[in-house]
Design a protein that fits this description.
two-stranded antiparallel ribbon
Length: about 350
């Protein structure tokens, strides 16, 4: 029996997704067994067919269920969390461990850059201790939650979990040759904006937060403060993050497609952005209204300056929320096999 072109591609995507859910030396044998089962099922359903269509293959795959469900049937028996919940448990655990440990590491890096750390070796030991305690806490908390769900829902159907067991054709990973292409115009614009950002931040760092202004076209240049010292001390970290983002975009331009490397790079970048924004919010005030005072001659602005800094904190908070959403979507996509290669 032969599959047509579209059906063959669908089968390879399905088997690739199953393979990514398996581990151990026998996973290739398991994938071969599953492939053989699919062909046997097709042969039973369409014994006279010369060529199987994509729709006919989808019927078999839908009955089998999501790759995670099929792979779970070949996993070793777990006593605390059963095979029905274990794939979802691993997914949630991976996401939380990555986010928590990454945030701890980046907070230490920022503390080092802004000069608020003590002895480096003691801080490093403290970081290792934080990693260990945080990892244990996350693992314990998630394991307890899923163990409770396992016991409470034993013999029952959990709607949210059942959704993860259903086959979603659109969620199957693309084959390597079908990687998502890069929008070169958009990436090029991001590179240009990144370079301009580096130039601006470097200038602000050099002037310690001062910017030039002129009262009129013939007046001499004067310098007035816009950014506080609290803001300026974070500029080295901002420059590093901007440089990493420029490097990532250049990598995308050169290779021409989004790869696992650039996707995880983006996740790490967003985690770093979140940590930086948290530090900035906690270090207010970040800006002053001295330039407005210089231009208008108004000395007493009341509560305008604190209100501006509060509004800036709200914007940063929205940025943190947006980055968290993007990180979760990216990690879920990678872990579930939408773009991660093995």
């Amino acid at each position: 029996m032969k599959l047509n072109k579209n059906a063959q591609v669908l089968l390879e995507r399905y088997l690739l997704a199953v393979k990514r859910e398996l581990s151990g030396r026998e996973r290739m044998d398991i994938v071969a067994e599953i492939e053989s089962y699919i062909y046997d099922s097709l042969d039973e359903r369409h014994p006279q067919a010369v060529e199987v269509t994509e729709k006919e293959l989808e019927e078999v795959l839908n009955e089998m269920g999501a790759p995670r469900k099929v792979a779970g049937q070949y996993s070793a028996q777990r006593y605390l969390i059963g095979p029905r919940l274990f794939p979802t448990y691993l997914l949630v655990l991976r996401i939380l461990l990555l986010v928590v440990l990454g945030a701890l590491t980046l907070s230490k890096i920022i503390s080092f850059i802004v000069g608020s750390m003590g002895n480096v070796w003691l801080e490093l030991l403290g970081l290792l201790g934080s990693w260990w305690s945080s990892a244990l806490s996350v693992i314990g908390m998630i394991t307890l939650i899923f163990a409770i769900i396992e016991r409470v829902s034993e013999g029952k159907s959990v709607e949210e979990m059942e959704e993860l067991q259903k086959l979603d054709i659109s969620a199957l990973p693309e084959l390597p040759e079908n990687e998502k292409e890069v929008k070169r115009v958009g990436v090029s614009i991001e590179i240009v904006l990144g370079v301009l950002g580096v130039v601006f931040l470097t200038y602000v760092q050099k002037t310690a937060g001062l910017i030039p202004y002129w009262t009129n076209a013939s007046a001499a240049q004067q310098m007035v403060r816009l950014f506080t010292e609290n803001f300026v001390r974070f500029i080295p970290f901002m420059l590093a993050l901007t440089g990493m983002e420029i490097a990532r975009n250049l990598t995308l331009l050169v290779q021409g497609y989004h790869s696992s490397l650039t996707n995880w790079w983006d996740v790490a970048q967003k985690v770093a952005d979140i940590v930086l924004l948290i530090f900035l919010i906690s270090s207010r005030p970040l800006v002053t209204l001295d330039i407005f005072r210089a231009i208008t001659g108004m000395v007493d602005l009341g509560n305008a300056e604190p209100q501006v800094n509060t509004a800036l904190a709200v914007v940063f908070g929205l940025g943190i929320f947006g980055n968290i959403v993007d990180i979760i979507q990216r990690i879920v996509g990678e872990v579930r096999g939408q773009s991660l290669k093995k």
